[in-house]
Structures are given as C-alpha cells and as structure tokens.
C-alpha cells in the first residue's frame, strides 16, 4: 500500500511529439493518499486509460515520474510494482478452473498453499463465486468471467494499488449495482488504494471519495463528488457531470457585474477581472427556479423523469434547462426563470471566474 | 414451431454435382475395380473381397504403410513445434510483419514437382551445393541414390522446408488474435513466459493448431510428387511411401484390382485417423 505521486507526467504515443496535440497526456501533477478510492472520469479518448497504464507500468511515460511512497517506479515492470489491474473485458485463463484462475497471481509469487486456499475462498465468497470454484472458467457467462478478473485483482492483500479500467462494461445493470457496492464495501474493508477509470459519472461519483475529471489529456478538476456537482471549476465539468448538465449561457461582464440580454444577473461573489475573454454564466438546472418573476422564457420541451421534471425553455435563442418538482408546464407556454445567486457563477474561457461567497 | 425450409438444397446442388463428378463417381469406379479381376478387353470377373485380403496380408503393403507412418510422424514432430516456435518469435507489430509473412509464404507458392527437382539438384554430390559441401568439404558421405539414410534425411528436410510455413502462418494467426489485455493481465499477475505460453497462447492457438495438424497429416500421408521426383522411391524401396507404391502397383504393374483395394484401404486409414484426431481435439468444445 502506498501513496501515489505523479510528477510532471507527459505522454505521447508518437516518437517525436511536437505540438501539444501530439500528447495524449499533457503535464499531469497529482498526489493520491494511501487507501483512498479515486475515480478517473472523462469521455473516451481523454487520456484516462493512458494515465492508468502509466501507473500500472504497462506504459512508460515520455516524461515525468511515478512515485509509490518515495520510491521512483517509473521504469519498473508491472510485476515489480506489485499492483493489480482489472480490464474492460474479462481476461481469464481458459484452461484453468475458477479456483486456479483466482490462485494464479498468488502461485506466481510463491505464496504458501494454505494462505492461497484461504484467500481464494474468501474472495470467491465475496464475489459469490463459491459454487463455481471447480468449474472450468472458459464455459462461464461474461459477467461471471469478469467477476473472476476482478477476483484476481483483489486476491493479493499486499498490493500497492488496485486499478479498474471500466470494469463493468460487460455487466448488466442490476449486477452493476451489486458489484459496485461490493467494491465499495471491499475498499472499506481492505483499505487498499483503488483507482477506477470510467466514463460513467454515476459509477465515478458513487465509487470514489475523490474524482479526477479529465479532458483532452488535461486534468480539469479534482474534487469530491459534491464539489464537482456544486462548483464545477470548468464548464466541461459542469456539462459532463449531472443530468442534464449545467446551463452555460453567454454573458457580458461590465464593471464587475454580469449581464445577460441586457439584464444584470446576480452571481455568487466577486468576479475576477476578465478582459478579452469569452464569458459565460453557469448554473445547474437544479438551481433555476420557475415562478412569476424573473427572465421571460418560452417552454420548448418538457421531460418527465419520474422523480422530477426537466423543462427546456428558450430565452430568445438561448436554451436553459430547469429542474422542478412542481406543476408540469405545457410546451409553448411562457414562464419566468430565476437563478439562485449562490449557485450562479461566471466562467471566463471555460474556467470559473467568480470567487466563492462566504456564507 | 420451427419452419423447415428445403430451399437450401438448391444452393448446395451445384457443389454436389461438382463433387459427384470429380470425386464420388471416380471413387465408385475404384470400388468397382476393387472387387473384380480383369485381363484386358474390358472383361471382368467377380473376385469378392480377395484383393482386400491380399493387400492387408501383403508384406509389401505393411512395409509401405510403416514407412508412410514413420514419414508422417517425423515431419509432424518437427513441423508443429518448429512452426509454433517460429510463429512465437515473429514480430506482432511494425515494419517487419509483412516482410516476415511474405518470406514465410514463399515456399508454399512453389509447385510440388519443382520443390522435388530443386532438392534433388541441391543435394547432388557433384554439382549440388549441399551435396558438394557435405561430401567434399565436410567429408560426410551423402548420396541419396546410394544411401537410404541420406534419402530419408533429404525428403524430411525438404518437407519441413516446404510446409513448416503453413503451420507458422496458422499459428501466427492464432497468436495475433489474442487481445493485448491478456498479456498485460499476465504481466500484472506475475506470470512467467512459460505460463503465458501454456495458459494464454497455447489455448488460443488450439483451434488453428488442430487444423494445421489435420492438414499436415492428410497432405503428408498422401504425399506423392515431391518424393517421387526426389528419390523415385529409392534407393531400393527405402523411400517408397504408400502413394508411390500405389502408383507402381496400378500403373507400373497394371494390377488394377489390388491397386483399387489398396487405395480404398489407404483412403479409409486417412479418413479414420483424421476423424479420430478431430473428435478427440474438439470434444471439450461441447
């Protein structure tokens, strides 16, 4: 078990990268404390799997260092790093039984037979594989195969970190829930650092204590699920997390105040100087109120999500989503929208530009 | 309820007709010969199963069958491990892949009689490169027209040279179909390279290797042109394999009845071994 530090990490898949676009990872600095549950969240191609493979040692970064505690492991092989990784698609050893599949990582490291037996049965029990221990692994269903893959990752109790690369892709929704809570439970029991890569916000937010949001090879924000939801540092995070995502509305900033359609919009706090930048207002649909006063808007679409209703309204040419539990308005109707000031922020060139209000 | 659609037969019909003319009907002619005796003039006399009994009891047939079995077993024992080894050593990505593949495919493109002629000349003691070097430089007496061991060595080396590529290409196809995460997971699990071979590569090659062994078995068991061009079955009878013996019986001595019986037995042996092997190799799939 170890603290993981990434220093000035950069990676390119080209031998001679020149422009920033050649890099799959652009300058990553990160420190993860021992025993935490982390998620790497981002759309496909954002560099999260690259980052994961660098930590596991399957890739050597073009530049920078990977430290486990204080030891530099940048050039160590995956086996020497003592880590475990679970891949997107199940990897099982076809010729072996389920038992031997689970025992394989331990046998390779010369663990005693008694200890192996105890660990294998413990993990199998946790993943509800006890019934199939003597079966050949090749005949199992994909979700059971993936459970074996996960089991092989969890079976060693001395690993520095366990990494999951979108491990629930092949699992059906009901079992997804179960396995996710299993993992969470396991993390609390074993206190091993776990890193979970996903493009699914629900998976990331329910699994991790801290979520790292990535976009185009950059880390955009690191924070707890609540921080990411409440105060996105970038419009991308606002968009990517939450459903529907944050409203991003073009605005003008004059004399330290934000204006939209000529009307001043009250925001959370002081606005940083933003000269010559593209400025936008960001507000989550959850904090857009529908009432008698406020900016006039025309309802375009209403979606009933069961627990609440999403109203898609147009203020002129600008689309604004609002979430409400109240009465369902009709499309075409005119209503008034108000923005909760504490949750209204200004973004300059995508990055947050208001100072947090002290409440 | 499953609807039964008989239309599919129409699509199979052209193949059936084709196979009937180039295989089934000629085979029936052979069956016809195998139970009769003829002295020419298209006069036939019923002979029953006598020819089969004669062939099965004949020392000559036993000798040819033994040599054939030895030849096939030897080349399989060399070509399969060698082919798998070469396939494992071949690059899986990059510039050298197409070059290696083309080099590997070259021997397969050469016609069989040319292969026989090439190796014949290559091993001639006076003008062949290998023959000259062995006899005159290394001082090893090597003449396949005189020495049975030299003749055997030559036909085996020739077959290995000609056909190992087939095993390589099939095994290689099996190896490159293994997704990267398998190797990555094995690395992380701390598997040795032997364990990677035993538990990942070999199981994934299982199917293509079955095909490779079957093809090599059938081809080598029926081999004719190359050894015929190379040694003509000699010296003496030492490299007279089943097919060469069969042709001698049928066209040399014109013993059509025994030859027909022999070819049916030959066919049955090939079929039986192939069927047994395939059934055993695929029994786990069910």
Q: How would you characterize this protein structure?
A:
The complex is a heterodimer of chains A (359) and B (286). Chain A contains nine helices and 22 strands. Chain A is of the alpha+beta class. Chain A folds into two domains: 4-230, P-loop containing nucleotide triphosphate hydrolases (Rossmann fold, 3-Layer(aba) Sandwich), CATH 3.40.50; 246-352, Nucleic acid-binding proteins (OB fold (Dihydrolipoamide Acetyltransferase, E2P)). In chain A, a hairpin with a 2-residue loop joins strand 9 and strand 10. In chain A, helix 3 (98-108) crosses helix 4 and helix 3 (98-108) packs parallel to helix 5 (142-154). The longest helix of chain A is centred in the middle third of the chain and has 18 residues, at 173-190. With 286 residues, chain B is mainly α. Chain B is 72% helix and 2% strand. Chain B has helices at 8-34, 50-57, 59-89, 96-105, 112-122, 129-137, 148-176, 180-188, 193-221, 225-230, 242-252, 256-282; strands at 36-38, 44-46. A two-stranded antiparallel ribbon of chain B has the order 1-2. The A-B interface holds A 56, 58, 77-79, 83-85, 87-89, 91, 93-96, 104-105, 108-109, 149, 152 and B 179, 181-182, 184-185, 187-192, 195, 198-200, 202-204.
**What's the main sheet of chain B like?**
2 strands, antiparallel
Largest interchain contact = A-B, 22 and 18 residues
Counting H and I runs of at least 4 residues, what is the number of helices of chain B?
12
Quaternary form: heterodimer
CATH class of the largest domain in chain A: Alpha Beta
- Number of strand elements of chain B: 2
If you compute it from the alpha carbons, what radius of gyration of chain A comes out, rounded to the nearest whole angstrom?
Answer: 24 Å
CATH class of chain B: Mainly Alpha
CATH superfamily of chain B: MetI-like
Strand content of chain B: under 5%
């Amino acid at each position: 078990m170890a603290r993981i530090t990434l220093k000035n990490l950069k990676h390119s898949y080209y031998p001679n990268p020149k422009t920033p676009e050649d890099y799959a990872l652009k300058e990553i600095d990160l420190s993860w404390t021992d025993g935490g549950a982390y998620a790497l969240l981002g759309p496909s191609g954002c560099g999260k799997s690259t980052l994961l493979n660098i930590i596991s040692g399957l890739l050597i970064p073009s530049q920078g260092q990977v430290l486990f505690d204080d030891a530099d492991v940048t050039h160590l092989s995956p086996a020497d790093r003592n880590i475990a990784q679970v891949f997107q698609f199940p990897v099982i050893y076809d010729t072996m039984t389920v038992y031997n599949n689970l025992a394989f990582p331990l046998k390779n490291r010369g663990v005693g037979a008694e200890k192996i037996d105890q660990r294998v049965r413990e993990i199998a029990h946790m993943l509800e594989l006890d019934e199939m221990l003597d079966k050949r692994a090749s005949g199992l269903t994909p979700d059971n195969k993936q459970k074996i893959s996960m089991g092989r990752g969890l079976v060693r109790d001395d690993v520095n970190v366990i990494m999951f690369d979108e491990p629930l892709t092949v699992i059906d929704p009901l079992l997804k829930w179960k396995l996710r809570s299993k993992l969470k439970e396991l993390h609390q029991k074993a206190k091993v650092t776990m890193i979970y890569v996903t493009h699914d916000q629900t998976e990331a937010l329910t699994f991790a204590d801290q979520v790292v949001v990535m976009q185009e090879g950059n880390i955009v924000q690191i924070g707890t699920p609540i921080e990411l939801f409440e105060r996105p540092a970038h419009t991308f995070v606002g968009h990517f997390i939450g459903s529907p995502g944050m409203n991003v509305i073009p605005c003008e900033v004059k004399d330290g105040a934000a204006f939209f359609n000529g009307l001043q919009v009250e925001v959370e706090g002081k606005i940083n100087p933003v000269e010559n930048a593209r400025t936008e207002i960001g507000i989550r649909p959850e904090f857009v109120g529908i009432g008698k006063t406020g900016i006039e808007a025309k309802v375009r679409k209403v979606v009933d999500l069961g627990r609440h209703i999403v109203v898609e309204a147009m203020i002129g040419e600008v689309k604004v989503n609002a979430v409400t539990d109240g009465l369902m308005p009709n499309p075409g109707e005119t209503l008034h929208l108000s923005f909760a000031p504490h949750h209204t922020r200004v973004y300059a060139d995508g990055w947050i530009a208001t100072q947090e209000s002290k409440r | 309820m499953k609807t039964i659609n008989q239309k599919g037969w129409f699509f199979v019909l052209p193949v059936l007709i084709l196979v009937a003319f180039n295989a089934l009907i000629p085979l029936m002619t052979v069956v016809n010969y195998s139970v009769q005796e003829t002295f020419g003039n298209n006069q036939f006399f019923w002979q029953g199963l006598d020819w089969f009994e004669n062939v099965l009891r004949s020392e000559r047939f036993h000798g040819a069958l033994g040599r054939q079995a030895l030849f096939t077993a030897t080349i399989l024992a060399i070509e399969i491990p060698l082919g798998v080894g070469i396939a494992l050593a071949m690059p899986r990505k990059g510039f050298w892949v197409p070059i290696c593949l083309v080099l590997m495919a070259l021997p397969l493109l050469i016609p069989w009689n040319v292969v026989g002629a090439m190796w014949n000349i290559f091993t001639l003691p006076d003008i062949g490169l290998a023959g000259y070097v062995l006899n005159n430089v290394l001082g090893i007496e090597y003449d396949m027209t005189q020495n049975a061991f030299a003749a055997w060595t030559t036909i085996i080396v020739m077959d290995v040279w000609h056909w190992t590529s087939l095993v390589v290409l099939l095994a290689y196809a099996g190896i490159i179909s293994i997704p990267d995460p398998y190797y990555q997971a094995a690395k992380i699990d701390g598997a040795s390279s032997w364990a990677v071979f035993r538990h990942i590569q070999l199981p994934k090659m299982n199917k293509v290797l079955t095909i490779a062994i079957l093809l090599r078995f059938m081809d080598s068991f029926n081999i004719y042109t190359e050894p015929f061009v190379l040694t003509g079955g000699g010296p003496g009878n030492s490299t007279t394999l089943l097919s060469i013996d069969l042709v001698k019986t049928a066209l040399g001595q014109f013993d059509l009845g025994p030859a027909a019986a022999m070819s049916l037995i030959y066919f049955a042996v090939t079929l039986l071994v192939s069927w047994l092997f395939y059934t055993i190799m695929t029994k786990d799939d069910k």
